[in-house]
């Protein structure tokens, strides 16, 4: 699927976000090297710290179904500038994605910035050695 189509899909899936507290929906689309698509949204909780971000939902769905090789991630939020993923999500990206994997960040008017995982989280902690 082309990046522009995945941006549109991220906007569409964000409508499934469970956001009764923030009212700030996020949609994520994760493309595997096989061309499979996994989507995700943020899922909040009355105990706020239990909230799962949209991009982590997509990554966890994919990993839980056996996917390991990823090509591209799209994250959409209703922000003025392209959405900036939180630190926890950057760490999860570093766990499962190659350092040069492109992450397309999308704003409410669909303007985009593409950053690699290593640009989002330089000098990341990735193993115990
Ligand atoms: N959120 C995401 O899902 N992804 C991001 O990249 C930024 C923040 C969510 C978490 C919470 O549900 C809401 O946005 C406000 O922080």
From TrEMBL:
It holds the Pfam family dCMP_cyt_deam_1. GO terms for molecular function: cytidine deaminase activity; identical protein binding; zinc ion binding. SUPFAM superfamilies: Cytidine deaminase-like. InterPro entries: APOBEC/CMP_deaminase_Zn-bd, CMP_dCMP_dom, Cyt/Deoxycyt_deaminase, Cyt_deam_tetra, Cytidine_deaminase-like. It is an enzyme of class 3 (hydrolase). Residues 1-128 form the CMP/dCMP-type deaminase domain. The active site is at residue 55. GO terms for biological process: nucleobase-containing small molecule metabolic process; pyrimidine-containing compound metabolic process. Zn(2+) binds at residues 53, 86, 89. One of its GO terms (cellular component) is cytosol. Its EC number is 3.5.4.5. Its cofactor is Zn(2+). Keywords: Hydrolase, Metal-binding, Zinc. It catalyses: cytidine + H2O + H(+) = uridine + NH4(+); 2'-deoxycytidine + H2O + H(+) = 2'-deoxyuridine + NH4(+). This enzyme scavenges exogenous and endogenous cytidine and 2'-deoxycytidine for UMP synthesis. Belongs to the cytidine and deoxycytidylate deaminase family. This is Cytidine deaminase. It comes from Streptococcus parasanguinis (strain ATCC 15912 / DSM 6778 / CIP 104372 / LMG 14537). The lineage of its organism: Bacteria, Bacillati, Bacillota, Bacilli, Lactobacillales.
């Amino acid at each position: 699927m082309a990046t522009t189509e995945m941006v549109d899909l991220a906007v569409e899936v964000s409508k499934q976000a469970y956001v009764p507290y923030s009212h700030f929906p996020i949609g994520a689309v994760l493309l595997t090297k096989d061309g499979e698509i996994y989507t995700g949204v943020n899922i909040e909780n009355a105990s706020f710290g239990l909230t799962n971000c949209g991009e982590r939902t997509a990554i966890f769905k994919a990993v839980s179904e056996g996917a390991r090789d990823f090509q591209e991630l799209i994250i959409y939020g209703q922000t003025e500038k392209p959405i900036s993923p939180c630190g926890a999500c950057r760490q999860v990206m570093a766990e499962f994605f190659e350092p040069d994997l492109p992450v397309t960040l999308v704003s409410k008017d669909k303007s985009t910035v593409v950053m690699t995982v290593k640009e989002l989280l330089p000098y990341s902690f990735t193993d115990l050695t």
